[in-house]
Predict the structure of Alpha/beta hydrolase.
Amino acid sequence: MNKWSYKSSLLGLLALTTSLGSVAYAGEPPLPTDPVVTRSLESQDALPRTAFYSTPSDIATALPGALLKHESAANYDLPKGFTATRILYRSTDSHGQPVATSGVVVVPPGKAPEGGWPVIVWAHGTSGTAEMCAPSLMKDVYYGSLRVFDLASAGFVLVMTDYHGLGTDGPHQYMNKYAQVADIRNAVPAAHALMPELSQKWFVVGHSQGAYAALATAEAETKANDAGYLGAVSIAPAARPGMMNANISAVKKAGGPYMSWLAFAIKAQYPEFKPEDLLSKKGLKFYPEATGGACWLTGNALYYPYSAKELVRPDWNKNKYVKQFFAEQTVGYEKTLGPILLVAGGGDTTIPIRTLNSYYKDACHLGSDIKYLVVPNAEHGAAMVESMDTQISWLKSVLAGNTPASSCPKN
């Protein structure tokens, strides 16, 4: 359960509409800050992790994108008539090693259009770093309350990747563009192996961590040049992780679990890195549970009393592994392939709009094709909800062969 689905449940709402976007940033109920309460809430939304998620012993012989397992899943809270199938497929981590990645393929009701259902690979936002934090292990698939199934209702099959290490054997390589791009791109052939009748045409759509991964996928496609790839929708991406954290000493609000997850991510990329070189004693206090035994809501509750500044060492951003991670994981310094719809929340305090403005300026300068939409006053989750109709219109237009208008200034 993420913070937005918690809020909508608390309000007694069964589904989000565009009007609920205002609830996500104005007059919203407070998040629970008692870990006992949040553990209970996450448990209520959780599905059991079964042997399905175990990595096959012969994974090294499978090709990237190979479908390893699949099973029908009837325990998700889906719109009427939708069907879901869990998949396990072969992907690659950032070190080039074979890994198993899980996900869910969601199919809307009705007859497929001529040429087959077009595909959207859905890339979710931060859920946590523990195995239990896979969206496929949540009844609402983590984003059910944020209108994600509207994308399928619009005539697309959703291929919802968990990212490896969530659900499957870890570690999850959090905010690692190389790992997440591999999981996104390998989900496409896996879905076709499950449903050969799918169209070859596909998009990537993501929010937050997943929006960052969507931009990285668009960059990777300049080399991969997949003929079926049509473009990306990126909502509130963490495009400049270094920029977001550079002025952390000025952050006065609760720091949340992000610095623990950052330490976990750097450790997953560089095994010789020590989390204690980034985190303070207060930051390390809940590190084991936040990274291995809790998801977003509980992670936030654990660290709620502390400001971001309190959770890190004074010299944390001078560490060579931290600096290297930020340098390697930033997007916007390579040209992208295909059009991009970039969405920012005008009131987003999680991903400050200045970081998206920086990405947009650099990407436009490189010749990327970007339509930039700022949703006035919208917080992080509301940017997803309130832009949904625009997202769908943009996707359908590109699918129809139209060239969307770019916001980039003409040189």
Q: What stands out?
A: Strands lie at 67-73, 83-92, 98-107, 119-123, 157-161, 202-207, 229-235, 339-345, 369-375. DSSP finds 15 helices and nine strands in the chain. The two ends are 45 Å apart (CA to CA). Confidence is low (pLDDT under 50) at residues 6-28.
